[in-house]
Amino acid sequence: MKYVIGVDVGATKISAAIVAHNHTISKTITHPTESHLGKKILLANIIKIIKIFDSPAVHSIGIGIAGEINQKKGILISSPNMAHDVKNVPIAKIIKHEFKKNVYIENDAKCFILAESVFGAGKKYDFVVGLTLGTGIGGGIVINKKLYRGGLGIAGEIGHMTIADNGSLCGCGQRGHLESYASGTGMIHLYKEMSGKTRDTYTIAQKAKDGDASAKRVMKIMAQSLGIGLANIMSILDPEIIIIGGGMASVRPIFGPAIKIARKNALYPSLKKIPIVRALLKENANIYGAAIIAQNQQ
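^ thats the sequence. predicted structure below, dont judge the formating
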């Protein structure tokens, strides 16, 4: 049986597993990304985790990574939430040289939505749009079980949709993006602006439950921002379903109200009926998606 290694490189951790052609998956192993320490450390950590799974039975490697990707050339052009020297990195070439196997890379959020469209919440639909709400916000568009990449290969960067003119600073350096308001990083920044205190996302969400005024205001802003972003997707793309994954999707004061706001702001009554659901594949979605991309190249 042929196997591929699926690798998910996020801003804070790397996860990987062996995926067979019948789509069974091995135990997943994680390792810190340490991308803030620079390009060399990032690459060393990717290689370290792949070595755990490498064997003669592995035919190729699929890597999903946060950032702008040149998928055809296997280059990570840039990544908003990583060190400044992580630019124009020929990851596929470097990993192929190390392991002597074919390597394919793709944006991690696109891997997520590809997996969800094939095996998860979107498997019954032909036109799927997905978002990942985590440290940042990623997105992807899948039509007939294939990624839609656009003219330059970067279609689906939903997190960098502008929703506020000259708004909060985003990790990419621009202002007013959806990611600035509806991501984990956005939550932390908003809470600090309102309370003067730095807290992690779990603490802020708990404070909102306990009635903390600043935390409750943060939840309201995040829900409104996400709702407007979803309404834009509904009106511009008219997908059959929208799938939301990532840690922030489990925060009830954000997810539920955001859907109501999206439906309220959708252009036509028919658009209000578009299902907006949570992802089903959880933490393994990006690994599955990276593996699918590698398998489809064989």
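The mean pLDDT is 92.
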